[in-house]
Specification:
This protein is α+β, with helices and mostly antiparallel strands and about 750 residues long. The protein is about 45% helix and about 20% strand. The protein has 21 helices and 22 strands. The strands form five sheets. It has a five-stranded antiparallel β-sheet. The radius of gyration is 53 Å and the shape is elongated.
């Protein structure tokens, strides 16, 4: 009673293990046996005697039935196996096609393959930089690849199309100890490969040594091929998403503003740059009328452009316009457009706008600088011509002073002429400095004299509503510097003060001597000590702290467009810095401003060089022969008269051609040449270069109304022994001529 149920249960288990094909085979075999028994029974019960032929027939029929059943069952088994394989392939396809994310694909693939092949453990590794990293594992936390790497045996070659699979035999050397501890008896692996090459490896392991036959290995290869395709597609999808994201990021954060508008002028999309620049939100811009971005005065012109774009197919390229921010401020933009077509009809237009406000401002400032440069060239030319006039006046006055006595009633007038000529010469030097045609020369300068001279010059140019006052110290206010540049600093500060007082006011300039140490100034100096301080104070509008931080930066200005270059204070700052000094400013809004210029005081031992002019020593003359080449007849005559009075033998030529002919005359030998550089036709430079071809030893003094930058010309410098800038007097010219002649150690060289 107890054994029957056990037997029945065992039969049920065996039957359950049969597939459909096995079950059909049993049914068919049973049917053949039943048919044979039925034939025999009919013959027996009917009284018919069985013959050998009957038995042979029955056996033949039985054999035929059994053979038919056998082959049909075998074919059915193959079909069943194929059905199962297709079902498994379909199962893995469904598992990996539910997502395009590589991590989801790998996780689903491992679980499905593990279930289909009835394995106990599974791992998927991915290849990063030729090193395998575990992505997912199932059934264990043991790292299989690491277990092989840590074992003494050589790790498998995971890159093979089908990695060697191994079964544990009497020795377990093929399976590392960490895997043995979790019961692994057999494992198989298959490399994952994408279009980029070796991508990783899938590994399965089982505790049952009978697992993973050849068919399962082939099936795993098919599974992995599907996984490879899925990974490839996932990677392509990721790259596509990355490309889309990159494009979106480039679009949103491009340096240019983008928007698309339809035929009605409605903005249908825009990028983040446009939102940031214009101060709107995207919600405010998208759906808004394009006219929102333009001043009302430009709406009519904008409508005409839109009409040409949509109706005539005209695209804009580099068109400069002004658009309006949300706060009402205007910016300059360069506009480019391109049409969007549907069924060959333009329906939208893409607009790209580049902010060129700063470029426009820089262009305007560049134009201003070019205008200043043009003015400088004009000033240089005026200064040259004016110097030629002044040299005649100053030279004549100098000769007259030498001819008459100091008690002569005309002496005072001659002295006034000479003084006025020198002041005119100072003005021309300022013009040359402005035109950058004169080098800066540092020497002791009386600051008080610079202040007074500047006030005299500026009083004529200021409005009568502005008054100027000075309060100069009686101390030794002398610095080592260039009076022209220091005067430029004062002029810039005075003009800045004037602009700060549109309704009028007063400007006060004072000088003091202050001892400066590290505690008194906010900047680090090369040296501390006594400084001459020039204060320029006004009663203007003043400025706040934020403006004071930027006032010395180039091109910074608070004035309206076209009313300032932003260079005045930066130039002043640079000049003072060259004088080893510094500038500070004190101001409050509505309280005026005060600029303090600190320049180191000159050494007291040299007071006598600047406090008084030394009595001019008597100029020594001579009997040498001197040739003067000067195209201005009055100037040449004055030089001739000055040097003739000193005993020299003078010849004057009024052009470069005449001078060269005179120099090439065989019977003329000159000890010195005084040459003007700026002459028509044959210039002074050409005369000098041609002269050196046949008389390289004659000393040359350059007399010019331009600045001393001529001395910077490397080609010219070796051929010049002296330089004098117009205007000059008899004393200056006579002293230079004597010095140059005395420096010539060799006798006069005769022309060959």
């Amino acid at each position: 009673m107890k054994t029957a149920p056990a037997l029945t249960e065992e039969k049920r288990k065996i039957y359950q293990r049969f597939g459909i094909v096995e079950q059909l085979q049993v049914v068919a075999s049973t049917a053949v046996v039943v048919a044979m028994i039925t034939i025999v029974s009919i013959n027996v019960f009917s009284g018919h005697e069985l013959t050998y032929l009957d038995l042979l027939t029955i056996i033949t029929v039985g054999l035929f039935g059994f053979v038919s059943v056998y082959f049909s069952v075998q074919y059915g088994r193959k079909l069943e196996e194929q059905r199962r394989e297709l079902l498994a392939i379909n199962t893995i396809s469904e598992a990996i096609s539910n997502s395009v994310r590589p991590n989801i694909i790998l996780m689903n693939a491992l679980k499905t393959v593990l279930n289909l092949l009835d394995a106990d453990y599974g791992w998927i590794y991915l290849n990063y930089g030729n090193k395998l990293f575990l992505e997912y594992s199932d059934g264990t936390k043991t790292d299989m690849v690491q277990a092989f790497e840590e074992s003494r045996s050589s790790p498998p070659n995971w890159k093979k199309p089908i990695v060697k699979w191994d079964r544990m035999k009497t020795d377990s050397a093929s399976i590392p100890p960490p895997l043995q501890r979790i019961g692994v008896r057999v494992w198989i692996s298959q490399p994952l490969e994408t279009s980029d090459g070796f991508a990783g490896v899938l590994i399965l392991a089982s505790k049952d040594i009978r697992k993973f036959n050849e068919k399962q290995m082939n099936l795993l290869s098919i599974f992995v091929s599907q996984i490879d395709v899925a990974l490839d597609n996932a990677q392509l999808f990721e790259k596509l998403n990355e490309s889309k994201q990159l494009y979106a990021d480039l679009y949103e954060h491009s340096p240019d503003m983008y928007h698309i508008i339809d035929k009605n002028g409605t903005i249908v999309s825009c990028n983040q740059t446009e939102v940031d620049v214009l101060g709107y939100t995207k919600e405010e811009l998208v759906g808004a009328d394009i006219r929102t971005l333009y001043p009302k005065a430009d709406h009519s012109r904008l409508e005409k452009k839109l009409d040409r774009i949509f109706n005539q197919g005209e695209n804009l390229t580099g068109v400069e316009e002004r658009i309006q921010r949300k706060n009402g401020s205007l910016i300059d933009v360069s506009v480019n457009t391109s049409l969007v077509y549907e069924n060959e009809d333009p329906v939208k237009v893409r607009v790209v706008m580049r902010d060129i406000t700063e470029n426009r401002m820089m262009q305007e400032k560049l134009l201003q600088v070019q205008r200043i440069d043009s003015l400088g060239n004009l000033a240089g030319g005026i200064a040259h011509d004016f110097n030629n006039i002044l040299v005649s006046i100053l030279s004549a006055a100098s000769i007259m002073k030498r001819k008459i006595k100091e008690n002569d009633p005309w002496y005072e007038y001659v002295d006034m002429i000479e003084a006025s000529s020198r002041r005119g010469g100072a003005l021309t030097r300022q013009l040359l400095t402005f035109a950058r045609q004169s080098n800066v020369t540092f020497h002791p300068v009386d600051v008080n004299e610079v202040v007074l001279e500047t006030i005299r010059l500026m009083e004529r140019s200021l409005d009568k509503s502005i008054s100027m006052h000075s309060n100069l110290c009686n101390d030794f206010a002398v610095v080592e510097g260039d009076e022209r540049q220091l005067q430029q600093v004062l002029m810039n500060l005075i003009l800045n003060a004037r602009d700060a007082m549109p309704e009028g006011g007063s400007i006060k300039i004072s000088t003091t001597i202050e001892s400066v140490n590290q505690e008194h100034v906010p900047v680090r100096l090369a040296s501390y000590g006594d400084y001459v301080v020039i204060r320029v104070e006004d009663t203007g509008v003043g400025m706040d702290g934020e403006i004071q931080k930027n006032i010395f930066e180039p091109f910074f200005t608070t004035k309206e467009a076209g009313k300032g270059t932003g260079l005045g204070l930066s130039v002043a700052y640079g000049i003072v810095n060259k004088h080893k000094g510094f500038i500070t400013v004190e101001s409050e809004p509505g309280e005026g401003a005060g600029f303090m210029i600190y320049v180191p005081q000159f050494d007291l031992e040299h007071r006598k060089l600047v406090l008084k002019k030394q009595a001019k020593e008597k100029v020594a003359g001579g009997s040498e022969r001197i040739l003067i080449i000067e195209d201005e007849t009055p100037v040449g005559r004055m030089i001739r008269d000055m040097l003739t009075d000193l005993g020299y033998k003078i010849t004057v030529c009024n052009s470069g051609e005449q001078g060269l002919r005179e120099l090439s005359t065989d019977d003329r030998d000159y000890d010195l040449l005084i040459l003007d550089l700026n002459m028509p036709n044959v210039s002074g430079r050409e005369v000098l270069y041609r002269l050196r071809d046949f008389n390289p030893s004659i000393p040359v003094i350059i007399s010019t109304g331009y600045g001393d930058q001529v001395l910077d010309e490397q080609k010219l410098r070796p051929h010049i022994q002296g330089y004098i800038q117009k205007p000059y007097d008899e004393y200056e010219m006579g002293r230079l001529v004597r010095r140059v002649l005395d420096e010539q150690n060799q006798p006069t060289v005769k022309k060959e």
